[in-house]
Amino acid sequence: MITQIRLKAYKWFGKRMPCGDIVEFNQRSTYIWPAASGYFLIFIILLMMVGATNYQNNLAFLLTFLIVGIGLATIIFTFKNLQGIQFALRGHGELFCEEFAEVEISLTSLTGTKHSAIGIGWSLEELVWTDVEPDEPSLVRLSFKAKRRGQVPLERILVTSYFPFGWLRTWSFFGFSSTVLVYPKPVEPPPVFESVGNQEEEQGHKKRGSEDFFGLKSYEIGEPLSRIDWKSFAREKGLYVREFAVFQGTQLCFDWDDYAGTDDELRLSYLTFLVIQAAQQQIGYSLKLPGEYIMFDEGEAHRNNCLKVLALYDTQSKEARERSLQ
Predict the structure, then answer these.
(1) What local confidence, expressed as pLDDT, does residue 195 receive?
(2) pTM
């Protein structure tokens, strides 16, 4: 019963919630209600009114009506504190599935007045408080964790304020129509020599050397300690040694088929890890997925393109399957 009431309330709020690339509140989408201290103040006012009536004390009546008048004026100030603020999505860091990143939101005053003690966040438990000055926008960074990859809409955002006395709470919800691109979660592939990627021998060959990281192999007695992969050892995967190679016309290809028999999402996580690692080490590579092939290249633009392809791989058909099951 409580769950149904909550769902109906969310649906009602959702219909009135503003949504767009740039959002501004109006009276229809803003709400106000007494806070905990407000209920206590109402209780005190009722006691004062009863006492003033019983004892026919004019000063008690005056004080009671004065507090009531201040309370009514507070309703206007509290309610107007959220009016005239424009919210815009400024940007975000790289978002990887199941990892936290920051989303930057700007708050701009359109009324030329200061808006004090504005709380913004995903819920009441994780609010970020700021003041919006009349002459410059205020920037707020919210921590965001995506549960799936692809083009993901942001959750609805709560904005609230208790200004000026904390007796009343005004609040509203809004959402951004823009989506954010979430990459697969990087997962280090099994530390075997072949898992780094296929080598296409179309233009040359490779030989052992010390220039570029090539892969991992099992530790053998006499190997230099400086080449031990301590990260794998710390994860209790065994003792492995980093191998390096001088690539002579060789092209690395990160191939979907390298991880046959592995879950699709885990394959994407493996390939994401390899793309990020190769980009950090400034190694050229190509990427091969079912029905998709990205030519050999290197650099930041190539890295971002590969990550985008991995993030959007089969998302449309997956969403269609999920809708059919609902």
Answers:
(1) 41
(2) 0.69
